[in-house]
Amino acid sequence: MSNTPAAADSRSPGTEDTAVAVLQPDTTAAKAFVGRSPGQLAWLRLKRDRTAFGSAITVAVFILVALLAPVISRLYGMTPTAGFSDKLNFEGLPVGYLGGISGEHWLGLEAGSGRDLFMQLIFGLRTSLIIAFAAAIISIALGVVVGIVSGYFGGWVDQALTWLTDFMLAFPFLVFALAIIPIINTALYDVGEEVPGSFRITVIIAVFALFGWMTTARLVRGQVLSLREREYVEAARAAGAGSAHILFKQLLPNIWAPILVAFSLALPGFIAAEAALSFLNIGVVEPTPDLGRLVYYGRQWLGTPDWAYFMIPATAVFVVVLAFNLLGDSLRDALDPKAGK
Amino acid sequence: MTDLADSTASAATTTVPAREPLLKVEGLTKHFPVRSGGWGKASVVRAVENVSFEVRPGETLGLVGESGCGKTTTGRMLVRLLEPTSGKITFEGEDITRTKGAKLRKLRQDIQIIFQDPYASLNPRHTVGRIVAMPLQVNGIEPPGGVKKRVQELLETVGLNPEHYNRYPHEFSGGQRQRIGIARALALKPKLIVADEPVSALDVSIQAQVVNLLRQLQRDLGLSFVFIAHDLAVVRHFCERIAVMYLGRMVEIGTREQIYEKPAHPYTRALLSAVPDVTRLGSASRIKLEGDVPSPIDPPSGCVFHTRCWKAQEKCSAEAPKLLPNPNGSTSACHFPETGKLF
Ligand SMILES: Nc1ncnc2c1ncn2[C@@H]1O[C@H](COP(=O)(O)OP(=O)(O)OP(=O)(O)O)[C@@H](O)[C@H]1O
Ligand code: SF4
Ligand SMILES: [Mg+2]
Predict the structure, then answer these.
(1) Residue A72 domain-assigned?
(2) Separation of A127 CA from ligand 1 center, angstroms?
(3) Where does the ABC transmembrane type-1 domain lie (chain A) (predicted)?
């Protein structure tokens, strides 16, 4: 009678198990006194990651500067659009070194127009981040909905949505954007009529969202497919839970980590794409300040001895994109320690 | 504590005939359509074929068979997680095979399930309290004294520290996790629990404790069980009646005494010989089954066991045996059942 239940008859059920329960706090007490959720554990891992710390600080500074741009403008005593043509020489280049950097103009002046580069930069950053955040939120939300519906309900709904996802992925984004953005702008506004900056921004966000949801949809679909067969989901179903409970209470808490990672990695993608659109001159136009356009303008002065005007906005774009990417990577490592680096 | 094996044994003989069935399963069948590869031809996995049995109130029925014989599929059909291809399930005299909507929700409170894998069966993002409270929450039940009190009661019932309700599953051992799963199954005060290999994933030393807990609950709460296991060792001291399955079919069903002392079907006998403590068995009489379980996509003709049966004759591959009563009292499907005393 070795391996049989009867062997334990003399003991009350669970003595050994509860003994484990009593012992367990001893081993974990040093580290934790209450239950640590997987999210809290991820946070601990993130705090130990130096790259994450550095990039998080950088990202936070950029976001803060963009948010506070109007306040900074007031303190700085200049608006982004005010020109200082008196500080330009006859060629339209700023007087002084490194694009006219001075105590008054921290990053110098914009060649040609004589606008303050620091102001242009922080307001341009603001435009870029608004577009990137809005596009990321909408596209990730779209992707999550499509992925969940297709993974959870399966069948022909899944087939149709998967086909749509593949179709959209096969679409050349830049070609489409080049073609469609001017068409939308001219279709809704008469020739000669001014297209408002806010409308242009809305169009860019919409186009980004339209082309940005597919990878998230795929990711979420895969996650839902693997999770919906889990026994805890079956347990909820067996207890009488409806689809809403299963999707939002059982599945979503288990896929928010990859969603968060997708979101943080989508941001730099959209910042870069927005800069690219502006560079191609189909993005944000004057007078809305924009990072990509600053780089585009600066490019013309590359040949001149004063390269600062190109380097400063280009470096800003580079640092923003890099910082967001590094943060996204660290986040992924923290949330999924098993994933390969 | 008295000798549990004895007390349950006497309960089995005295009360079995008097009870009306709580659950009645007739001709239950499940076929899964499958496709081999993307463009392969469609075929059918005959996971469960024409299975019938009854469970009376307070009774424990063991469902035993090798891996892949359709036990889980049967269990899932009972708790309505899978739709049967055909057959009929009756619960408390009511046909529940196709119950839907609000009636199904009501029914789900009476039939609950315990899963095999203590790791996959608890949501890693939920605290134990939330996990155990989930059935109450989704049914909008507000227990007297509040949800928290009820959850703590349930945790205590299954032998866990009630103060651990705000811990997460990863902080518990396998046996403790299985207890959490049991507490969740008890939350709705079910009448029948389908336990799908509840101890197979646990250490042998922990298995006995969890089985004891289930047995205690069964007596204290008057629960009925369908207890699924892949060998006859675990169900031995828990189940009053045992049904043996092979390749989706029921091959023998009988009381514990009939199955353990005078098994009629060769497959039951083979399973039994693998139980380490069947005392009258010397190691020489251990029956080793040759070969693998055939594929349920293309089951053998006649008696599906004939490819591995040492007693097989021509008739066996030609004609499927019917489930018929044996001299020993059990019911089995074999043309040449074992007779008389075993071994
Ligand atoms: N959804 C499905 N689609 C196709 N085939 C399936 C499906 N579910 C189960 N099967 C097949 O049905 C058969 C019975 O499976 P089931 O899980 O019921 O067996 P089991 O007796 O519980 O085995 P185990 O001891 O491994 O848990 C197996 O051959 C399995 O491959
Ligand atoms: S019918 Fe034949 S093959 Fe099947 S179990 Fe009986 S003896 Fe074996
Ligand atoms: Mg199984």
Answers:
(1) yes
(2) 56
(3) 125-328
Q: Is any Cβ of chain B less than 8 angstroms from the Cβ of A61?
A: no
So where are chain B's domains?
2-35+44-249, 263-332
Task: Give the type of residue at B280.
Answer: R
A176 within a domain of the structure (yes/no)? yes
Ligand with the closest atom to the CA of B323: 2
Q: The whole model's pTM is what? A: 0.79
| Tens digit of each residue's pLDDT (9 = 90 or more) over B125-174 | 999 999 999 999 999 999 989 999 999 999 999 999 999 999 999 999 99
pLDDT in tens, B282-298: 555 677 787 888 999 99
Q: Given phi > 0 = left and psi -120 to 50 = alpha, else beta, which region is B225? A: beta
CATH code: domain of residue A173: 1.10.3720.10
- Is the CB of residue A253 less than 8 Å away from at least one CB of chain B? yes
Please, what's the b/e burial string for A170-192 (b: 16 or more CB within 10 A of its CB; e: otherwise)?
eeeeeeebeebbeebeeeeeeee
Q: How far is the CA of B324 from the centre of ligand 3 (A)?
A: 27
Sites in chain B below the pLDDT cut of 50: 1-16
Residue A40 lies in a domain: no
Domain B2-35+44-249 has CATH 3.40.50.300: yes
Q: Which residues pair with B33 in a beta bridge?
A: B44
Range of the domain at A322: 48-335
Residue A41, domain member (yes or no):
no
What one-character DSSP code corresponds to residue A193? S
What is the position in ligand 1's atom list of the atom closest to the CA of B66?
25
Mind telling me how many Å the CA of B21 is from chain A's nearest CA?
22
All residues of chain B having their beta carbon less than 8 Å from the beta carbon of residue A237 are: 81
